Amino acid sequence: NLSKQVQIKEVGPRDGLQNEKKEIATEDKIEWINRMSESGLSYIEITSFVHPKWIPQLKDAVEVAKSIERKDGVTYAALVPNMKGLERAIEADVDEVSIFMSASESHNKNNINKSISETYPILREVVDEAKKAGKSVRGYVSTVFGCPYEGNVDEHQAIDVCDNLFNMGIDELSIGDTIGVANPVQVERVLSEFEKHFSKDKIALHFHDTRGMALANTVVALQLGYHIFDSALGGLGGCPYAKGASGNVATDDLAHMLQQMGLEQSIDLNKLQEAAQFIESKLDQPLPSKQMGISRRL
Ligand code: HMG
Ligand code: MG
Protein backbone atom coordinates (compact mmCIF):
# COMPACT_ATOMS: atom_id res chain seq x y z
CA ASN A 1 0.00 0.00 0.00
CA LEU A 2 2.93 2.37 0.49
CA SER A 3 4.05 2.27 -3.14
CA LYS A 4 2.61 5.54 -4.46
CA GLN A 5 4.55 8.78 -4.60
CA VAL A 6 3.13 10.99 -1.90
CA GLN A 7 2.14 14.57 -2.67
CA ILE A 8 2.50 17.37 -0.15
CA LYS A 9 0.25 20.41 -0.51
CA GLU A 10 1.68 23.44 1.23
CA VAL A 11 -1.00 25.58 2.89
CA GLY A 12 1.16 27.75 5.18
CA PRO A 13 0.72 31.08 3.35
CA ARG A 14 -3.05 30.63 3.71
CA ASP A 15 -3.88 28.40 6.70
CA GLY A 16 -0.76 29.39 8.65
CA LEU A 17 -0.84 33.12 8.07
CA GLN A 18 -4.61 33.48 8.51
CA ASN A 19 -4.04 32.68 12.20
CA GLU A 20 -0.96 34.85 12.64
CA LYS A 21 -1.64 37.99 14.67
CA LYS A 22 1.51 39.87 13.64
CA GLU A 23 1.04 41.58 10.31
CA ILE A 24 3.52 40.18 7.79
CA ALA A 25 4.65 42.57 5.04
CA THR A 26 3.37 41.74 1.56
CA GLU A 27 6.94 41.64 0.19
CA ASP A 28 7.91 39.09 2.86
CA LYS A 29 4.98 36.84 1.96
CA ILE A 30 6.05 37.04 -1.69
CA GLU A 31 9.65 36.20 -0.90
CA TRP A 32 8.58 33.32 1.35
CA ILE A 33 6.37 31.81 -1.35
CA ASN A 34 9.14 32.24 -3.95
CA ARG A 35 11.58 30.42 -1.67
CA MET A 36 9.11 27.58 -1.19
CA SER A 37 8.65 27.34 -4.96
CA GLU A 38 12.41 26.85 -5.25
CA SER A 39 12.42 24.05 -2.66
CA GLY A 40 10.68 21.50 -4.88
CA LEU A 41 7.16 21.80 -3.48
CA SER A 42 4.68 21.25 -6.30
CA TYR A 43 1.61 22.85 -4.77
CA ILE A 44 1.27 26.03 -2.71
CA GLU A 45 -1.94 27.57 -1.41
CA ILE A 46 -0.77 31.16 -1.45
CA THR A 47 -3.62 33.16 0.11
CA SER A 48 -7.38 33.44 0.44
CA PHE A 49 -9.99 35.68 -1.10
CA VAL A 50 -12.27 35.81 1.91
CA HIS A 51 -13.64 38.97 3.51
CA PRO A 52 -10.69 41.10 4.70
CA LYS A 53 -12.69 42.11 7.78
CA TRP A 54 -12.60 38.45 8.89
CA ILE A 55 -9.02 37.68 7.89
CA PRO A 56 -7.15 41.02 7.73
CA GLN A 57 -3.77 39.26 7.43
CA LEU A 58 -4.66 38.18 3.88
CA LYS A 59 -6.19 41.42 2.61
CA ASP A 60 -3.25 41.74 0.18
CA ALA A 61 -4.29 38.52 -1.60
CA VAL A 62 -4.46 39.98 -5.12
CA GLU A 63 -1.09 41.69 -4.81
CA VAL A 64 0.58 38.54 -3.43
CA ALA A 65 -0.88 36.37 -6.20
CA LYS A 66 0.13 38.85 -8.91
CA SER A 67 3.67 39.41 -7.61
CA ILE A 68 5.02 35.94 -6.86
CA GLU A 69 7.24 34.22 -9.41
CA ARG A 70 5.28 31.38 -11.00
CA LYS A 71 7.53 28.39 -11.34
CA ASP A 72 6.71 25.75 -13.96
CA GLY A 73 5.36 22.58 -12.42
CA VAL A 74 4.04 24.35 -9.31
CA THR A 75 0.30 24.80 -8.81
CA TYR A 76 -0.63 28.08 -7.09
CA ALA A 77 -3.99 27.83 -5.36
CA ALA A 78 -6.14 30.08 -3.18
CA LEU A 79 -9.18 29.76 -0.94
CA VAL A 80 -12.46 31.22 -2.22
CA PRO A 81 -15.74 31.40 -0.24
CA ASN A 82 -18.16 32.87 -2.79
CA MET A 83 -18.50 34.65 -6.15
CA LYS A 84 -16.98 37.86 -4.82
CA GLY A 85 -13.90 35.87 -3.82
CA LEU A 86 -13.83 34.05 -7.15
CA GLU A 87 -13.83 37.34 -9.05
CA ARG A 88 -10.75 38.44 -7.11
CA ALA A 89 -9.10 35.03 -7.61
CA ILE A 90 -9.65 35.17 -11.36
CA GLU A 91 -8.33 38.74 -11.48
CA ALA A 92 -5.22 37.48 -9.65
CA ASP A 93 -4.99 34.47 -12.01
CA VAL A 94 -4.47 31.63 -9.54
CA ASP A 95 -4.26 28.13 -11.06
CA GLU A 96 -6.72 26.47 -8.71
CA VAL A 97 -9.44 27.64 -6.34
CA SER A 98 -10.42 25.92 -3.12
CA ILE A 99 -13.97 26.11 -1.87
CA PHE A 100 -14.69 25.23 1.72
CA MET A 101 -17.43 24.34 4.18
CA SER A 102 -17.89 22.21 7.29
CA ALA A 103 -19.38 18.82 8.11
CA SER A 104 -20.97 20.31 11.24
CA GLU A 105 -23.70 22.93 11.15
CA SER A 106 -22.40 25.21 13.91
CA HIS A 107 -18.84 25.39 12.59
CA ASN A 108 -20.15 26.16 9.12
CA LYS A 109 -22.27 28.98 10.55
CA ASN A 110 -19.44 30.41 12.62
CA ASN A 111 -16.91 30.17 9.80
CA ILE A 112 -18.86 31.36 6.78
CA ASN A 113 -22.05 32.78 8.24
CA LYS A 114 -24.39 30.34 6.47
CA SER A 115 -26.18 27.09 7.22
CA ILE A 116 -24.97 23.99 5.37
CA SER A 117 -27.98 24.00 3.04
CA GLU A 118 -27.56 27.73 2.30
CA THR A 119 -23.90 27.08 1.41
CA TYR A 120 -24.46 24.55 -1.40
CA PRO A 121 -25.96 26.88 -4.05
CA ILE A 122 -23.25 29.47 -3.35
CA LEU A 123 -20.49 26.91 -3.85
CA ARG A 124 -22.17 25.34 -6.87
CA GLU A 125 -22.09 28.68 -8.67
CA VAL A 126 -18.44 29.18 -7.70
CA VAL A 127 -17.51 25.73 -9.07
CA ASP A 128 -19.40 26.33 -12.34
CA GLU A 129 -17.86 29.74 -12.92
CA ALA A 130 -14.36 28.63 -11.89
CA LYS A 131 -14.56 25.76 -14.38
CA LYS A 132 -15.70 28.15 -17.12
CA ALA A 133 -12.65 30.27 -16.31
CA GLY A 134 -10.42 27.20 -16.76
CA LYS A 135 -9.57 26.71 -13.09
CA SER A 136 -9.38 23.39 -11.32
CA VAL A 137 -11.35 23.30 -8.08
CA ARG A 138 -10.47 21.73 -4.77
CA GLY A 139 -12.92 21.38 -1.89
CA TYR A 140 -12.31 21.39 1.84
CA VAL A 141 -14.62 19.85 4.39
CA SER A 142 -13.80 20.97 7.94
CA THR A 143 -14.60 19.29 11.27
CA VAL A 144 -14.68 15.77 9.78
CA PHE A 145 -12.86 14.40 12.84
CA GLY A 146 -14.45 16.67 15.45
CA CYS A 147 -16.08 20.05 15.87
CA PRO A 148 -15.16 22.75 18.41
CA TYR A 149 -18.88 23.39 19.08
CA GLU A 150 -20.52 19.99 18.63
CA GLY A 151 -17.78 17.51 19.57
CA ASN A 152 -17.99 14.24 17.63
CA VAL A 153 -19.18 14.44 14.03
CA ASP A 154 -20.83 11.39 12.47
CA GLU A 155 -18.76 10.24 9.48
CA HIS A 156 -21.92 9.71 7.42
CA GLN A 157 -22.78 13.37 7.87
CA ALA A 158 -19.28 14.24 6.59
CA ILE A 159 -19.60 11.79 3.68
CA ASP A 160 -22.92 13.39 2.72
CA VAL A 161 -21.29 16.86 2.54
CA CYS A 162 -18.35 15.45 0.54
CA ASP A 163 -20.75 13.70 -1.83
CA ASN A 164 -22.57 16.96 -2.50
CA LEU A 165 -19.28 18.73 -3.26
CA PHE A 166 -18.07 15.98 -5.62
CA ASN A 167 -21.45 16.14 -7.39
CA MET A 168 -20.69 19.80 -8.16
CA GLY A 169 -17.69 18.61 -10.17
CA ILE A 170 -14.75 19.40 -7.90
CA ASP A 171 -11.45 17.70 -8.73
CA GLU A 172 -10.22 16.83 -5.24
CA LEU A 173 -11.44 17.05 -1.69
CA SER A 174 -9.43 17.69 1.45
CA ILE A 175 -10.91 16.43 4.70
CA GLY A 176 -9.97 18.42 7.74
CA ASP A 177 -9.10 17.65 11.32
CA THR A 178 -9.69 21.33 11.98
CA ILE A 179 -8.91 21.30 15.71
CA GLY A 180 -6.40 18.46 15.83
CA VAL A 181 -8.45 15.92 17.77
CA ALA A 182 -8.22 12.94 15.42
CA ASN A 183 -6.42 9.85 16.66
CA PRO A 184 -5.03 6.96 14.58
CA VAL A 185 -7.83 4.50 15.46
CA GLN A 186 -10.45 7.08 14.50
CA VAL A 187 -8.62 7.92 11.26
CA GLU A 188 -8.63 4.25 10.31
CA ARG A 189 -12.37 3.99 11.02
CA VAL A 190 -13.33 7.18 9.17
CA LEU A 191 -11.14 6.50 6.13
CA SER A 192 -12.36 2.93 5.87
CA GLU A 193 -15.86 4.38 5.58
CA PHE A 194 -14.72 7.04 3.09
CA GLU A 195 -13.16 4.47 0.77
CA LYS A 196 -16.57 2.90 0.22
CA HIS A 197 -17.68 6.18 -1.39
CA PHE A 198 -14.68 7.99 -2.90
CA SER A 199 -11.48 7.25 -4.80
CA LYS A 200 -8.37 7.52 -2.63
CA ASP A 201 -6.75 9.46 -5.46
CA LYS A 202 -9.21 12.32 -4.88
CA ILE A 203 -9.10 12.59 -1.11
CA ALA A 204 -6.44 14.64 0.69
CA LEU A 205 -5.88 14.65 4.44
CA HIS A 206 -5.65 17.95 6.28
CA PHE A 207 -4.37 17.31 9.79
CA HIS A 208 -3.84 20.08 12.31
CA ASP A 209 -1.29 19.14 14.93
CA THR A 210 -2.81 20.66 18.07
CA ARG A 211 -2.16 17.56 20.18
CA GLY A 212 0.84 16.12 18.37
CA MET A 213 -1.10 13.32 16.66
CA ALA A 214 -0.84 14.48 13.04
CA LEU A 215 2.16 12.39 11.92
CA ALA A 216 0.70 9.28 13.56
CA ASN A 217 -2.57 9.95 11.74
CA THR A 218 -0.63 10.46 8.51
CA VAL A 219 1.01 7.04 8.79
CA VAL A 220 -2.37 5.37 9.25
CA ALA A 221 -3.71 7.15 6.16
CA LEU A 222 -0.60 6.12 4.18
CA GLN A 223 -1.07 2.50 5.19
CA LEU A 224 -4.64 2.67 3.93
CA GLY A 225 -3.37 3.91 0.54
CA TYR A 226 -4.02 7.66 0.80
CA HIS A 227 -1.26 9.78 -0.64
CA ILE A 228 -2.15 13.50 -0.65
CA PHE A 229 -1.40 15.50 2.51
CA ASP A 230 -1.78 19.18 3.41
CA SER A 231 0.80 20.80 5.67
CA ALA A 232 2.21 24.20 6.65
CA LEU A 233 5.91 24.97 6.69
CA GLY A 234 7.32 25.06 10.21
CA GLY A 235 3.89 24.17 11.61
CA LEU A 236 2.90 27.82 11.24
CA GLY A 237 -0.58 28.70 12.41
CA GLY A 238 -2.60 29.14 15.52
CA CYS A 239 -1.63 31.17 18.53
CA PRO A 240 0.30 29.52 21.37
CA TYR A 241 -1.80 31.57 23.85
CA ALA A 242 -5.21 30.80 22.37
CA LYS A 243 -6.83 27.67 23.72
CA GLY A 244 -7.30 25.07 21.00
CA ALA A 245 -5.70 26.95 18.13
CA SER A 246 -2.74 25.34 16.43
CA GLY A 247 -1.13 24.99 13.04
CA ASN A 248 -1.19 22.24 10.45
CA VAL A 249 1.26 19.38 10.58
CA ALA A 250 4.64 20.90 9.70
CA THR A 251 5.73 20.48 6.07
CA ASP A 252 9.38 20.12 7.10
CA ASP A 253 8.58 17.32 9.59
CA LEU A 254 6.25 15.61 7.12
CA ALA A 255 8.72 15.84 4.21
CA HIS A 256 11.53 14.55 6.43
CA MET A 257 9.47 11.56 7.56
CA LEU A 258 8.31 10.73 4.02
CA GLN A 259 11.85 10.93 2.67
CA GLN A 260 13.07 8.62 5.42
CA MET A 261 10.28 6.21 4.46
CA GLY A 262 11.27 6.41 0.77
CA LEU A 263 7.98 8.01 -0.24
CA GLU A 264 9.12 11.49 -1.27
CA GLN A 265 12.09 12.45 -3.45
CA SER A 266 11.30 15.87 -4.94
CA ILE A 267 11.82 18.28 -2.07
CA ASP A 268 15.17 19.81 -1.15
CA LEU A 269 15.00 19.72 2.65
CA ASN A 270 17.78 22.29 3.06
CA LYS A 271 16.00 24.82 0.88
CA LEU A 272 12.76 24.04 2.68
CA GLN A 273 14.43 24.73 6.04
CA GLU A 274 15.87 28.00 4.77
CA ALA A 275 12.40 29.06 3.69
CA ALA A 276 11.12 28.19 7.17
CA GLN A 277 13.94 30.19 8.78
CA PHE A 278 13.07 33.13 6.55
CA ILE A 279 9.43 33.32 7.69
CA GLU A 280 10.38 32.57 11.31
CA SER A 281 12.61 35.67 11.27
CA LYS A 282 9.50 37.75 10.49
CA LEU A 283 7.45 36.29 13.37
CA ASP A 284 7.42 37.09 17.09
CA GLN A 285 7.78 33.48 18.21
CA PRO A 286 9.70 30.39 17.06
CA LEU A 287 8.03 27.99 14.65
CA PRO A 288 6.92 24.78 16.38
CA SER A 289 8.20 22.10 13.97
CA LYS A 290 10.71 19.50 15.21
CA GLN A 291 13.01 20.28 12.26
CA MET A 292 13.10 23.97 13.22
CA GLY A 293 13.83 22.97 16.81
CA ILE A 294 16.83 20.94 15.61
CA SER A 295 18.08 23.78 13.39
CA ARG A 296 17.92 26.23 16.31
CA ARG A 297 19.88 23.88 18.59
CA LEU A 298 22.64 23.18 16.04
P1 HMG B 1 -21.02 37.51 4.81
O1 HMG B 1 -20.88 38.75 5.64
O2 HMG B 1 -22.13 36.56 5.13
O3 HMG B 1 -21.06 37.88 3.25
O4 HMG B 1 -19.65 36.73 4.86
P2 HMG B 1 -22.16 38.54 2.38
O5 HMG B 1 -22.22 37.75 1.14
O6 HMG B 1 -23.42 38.78 3.18
O7 HMG B 1 -21.52 39.98 2.02
C1 HMG B 1 -21.33 41.01 3.00
C2 HMG B 1 -20.31 42.02 2.51
O8 HMG B 1 -19.05 41.38 2.39
C3 HMG B 1 -20.60 42.59 1.12
O9 HMG B 1 -20.10 43.93 1.11
C4 HMG B 1 -19.76 41.77 0.21
O10 HMG B 1 -19.40 42.44 -0.99
C5 HMG B 1 -18.54 41.52 1.05
P3 HMG B 1 -21.07 45.20 1.27
O11 HMG B 1 -22.06 45.05 0.15
O12 HMG B 1 -21.70 45.03 2.62
O13 HMG B 1 -20.13 46.34 1.17
N1 HMG B 1 -17.87 40.27 0.69
C6 HMG B 1 -16.57 40.13 0.33
N2 HMG B 1 -15.56 41.00 0.24
C7 HMG B 1 -14.37 40.50 -0.18
N3 HMG B 1 -14.14 39.21 -0.48
C8 HMG B 1 -15.13 38.32 -0.38
C9 HMG B 1 -16.40 38.77 0.05
N4 HMG B 1 -17.56 38.15 0.25
C10 HMG B 1 -18.45 39.06 0.63
N5 HMG B 1 -14.91 37.04 -0.68
C11 HMG B 1 -18.01 35.21 4.03
C12 HMG B 1 -19.49 35.48 4.22
C13 HMG B 1 -17.85 33.76 3.61
C14 HMG B 1 -17.48 36.14 2.95
C15 HMG B 1 -17.29 35.49 5.36
O14 HMG B 1 -17.93 34.77 6.35
C16 HMG B 1 -15.83 35.16 5.31
O15 HMG B 1 -15.05 35.80 4.63
N6 HMG B 1 -15.38 34.16 6.09
C17 HMG B 1 -14.00 33.79 6.12
C18 HMG B 1 -13.83 32.58 6.87
C19 HMG B 1 -12.39 32.09 6.78
O16 HMG B 1 -11.57 32.59 6.04
N7 HMG B 1 -12.11 31.07 7.59
C20 HMG B 1 -10.83 30.45 7.57
C21 HMG B 1 -10.64 29.57 6.37
S1 HMG B 1 -11.42 27.99 6.51
C22 HMG B 1 -10.26 27.02 7.34
O17 HMG B 1 -9.27 27.52 7.81
C23 HMG B 1 -10.46 25.53 7.40
C24 HMG B 1 -9.54 24.76 6.44
O18 HMG B 1 -8.19 25.06 6.69
C25 HMG B 1 -9.77 23.26 6.62
C26 HMG B 1 -9.68 22.79 8.08
O19 HMG B 1 -8.67 23.03 8.74
O20 HMG B 1 -10.66 22.18 8.51
C27 HMG B 1 -9.86 25.12 5.00
MG1 MG C 1 -6.98 24.17 8.20
TrEMBL record:
Gene3D superfamilies: Aldolase class I. Pfam families: HMGL-like (PF00682). GO terms for molecular function: hydroxymethylglutaryl-CoA lyase activity; metal ion binding. CDD domains: DRE_TIM_HMGL (cd07938). Keywords: Lyase, Metal-binding. Residues 6-273 form the Pyruvate carboxyltransferase domain. GO terms for biological process: ketone body biosynthetic process; L-leucine catabolic process. SUPFAM superfamilies: Aldolase. InterPro entries: Aldolase_TIM, HMGL, PYR_CT. Belongs to the HMG-CoA lyase family. This is Hydroxymethylglutaryl-CoA lyase YngG. The lineage of its organism: Bacteria, Bacillati, Bacillota, Bacilli, Bacillales.
